[in-house]
């Protein structure tokens, strides 16, 4: 019976194709807007997450100096080897870590020179930042311990200094130090907040300290936490430990800061989420208007088809069967509108994400939700007209002109 | 509730016992039926006549279980219709009664076949069998070649024959026709009436037809005349 009713309803919708389409338009635009907003928002969120993830997954960066911005910003003393060892020893939940020291300088090969960042690192740095050595090799233990001047260069540095030639075994000059290239990093591309992650020259920390910086300072420590849930716990442990080591009084201002990349990602996602919510609300209003459109056209339809309802009742249709028929018709209208809206919204967001170079992520939950929501709109706004049809008196309905 | 039909004297298909139908109240009270007693036996072809306002349409609606008496009793196949609720009366119509209307009342932009199938849909007949039976009914009214035509492409006489096919596709015990020839020209009228007579004689379907044309009434085996809510002739 339900199948026969469905077939009848679809036929009824097709009979008035233009009218049905115009009625669906409200739902279609509403659903389309919701789908487009959510999909674009989802894409933006993912983009932010993957960008931040590309800096280093579950990464914390510990640097000297207060986190505060503004003129009173204090420069803290750099860390020392003992600080890093203490963190390694006493903080639980760390997967990998690397002390680093950094200098912005111009590197030279022959008559080519290129301004870049030269960073002294430990082995852990590759893991924390997600760098991989694509060509050549990483630093040997002997090189790391002895301070031999070797380096691994990023793709941008390679392109600018070697222009396609094989860099391995060549020497580049960093300040006054001649440095042997042993490897090239796999490209990581742009970081979230600008900055070319391939524009880098990595050296063993020991070599950097001794030959380039001329001191034993550590400018920041990169940490990778075991999993995202532990980030804040590790952050608190590191802060407590460093406060103790640097003798900061309770209530005093820290002369170091721990940056949590996850926090930055969360802030940015929550901004996108609230935008999505706001626009979703506006779209919901348009769904409401679409629902009223369906109710309106169903009321017109019931009036137009009064004689038909009379005939159906005379040949033995129950009031509940007439109710079901008109209800199913309203749901068919709303669902078709919903399906068209889903397609419309997806193509719209596909175009938008392509032009904004965001990832195009279809959220099955949202699509299913939109589908269910449009069915619900059909039931809610179809009920009143359907009840009107079901309550018709067959004798009067048959006499209706 | 209903009196059981007696084996030796089967109950008539339609029996009115002092049926009254009153519309409105007080000053504007209208006595559409005023204590009518009437019996129609199985296999009869009864024509009901009367001027407008005589109560014939009210009687017709009541026979078709679309309406219930204000007082008195109406027994359809021995069952007192007054005791039934709206849905039970709908089920009686679904299973025992076929309707033919003056205005045909075919569904717009729907093929003849689908129109004829409609009562079977409500009877939950499976699609295959529905189609077979609808085609047979269309064949009986001589329209099997027009099964795929929508009502707009059929002439008035053809439309009424489709409507008759729709009424008899369920093999009803009672065919109710309300001015079935009212909208047709003379030649078509005769065609439709001959079809009804054939259904009555060859298929044993009881026919009750309301008409205001004496020529049409003559096709029946008996004519009941209403005036002012009472039967003035033709009762038994």
UniProtKB/TrEMBL annotation, chain A:
A single GO cellular-component term on record: plasma membrane
Molecular function terms from GO: transmembrane transporter activity
Region forming the signal peptide: none
Keyword hit for Transmembrane: yes
Pfam families with a match to the protein in the record: FtsX, MacB_PCD
Domain MacB-like periplasmic core residue range list: 20-240
ABC3 transporter permease C-terminal domain: residues covered: 282-394
Cell location: Cell membrane
Keywords per UniProt: Cell membrane, Membrane, Transmembrane, Transmembrane helix
Residues annotated as transmembrane: 21-40, 278-302, 322-348, 360-384
Keyword Hydrolase: no
Membrane topology: Multi-pass membrane protein
Chief localization: membrane
Family designation: Belongs to the ABC-4 integral membrane protein family.
Protein name, UniProt field: FtsX-like permease family protein
Organism name: Polyangium fumosum
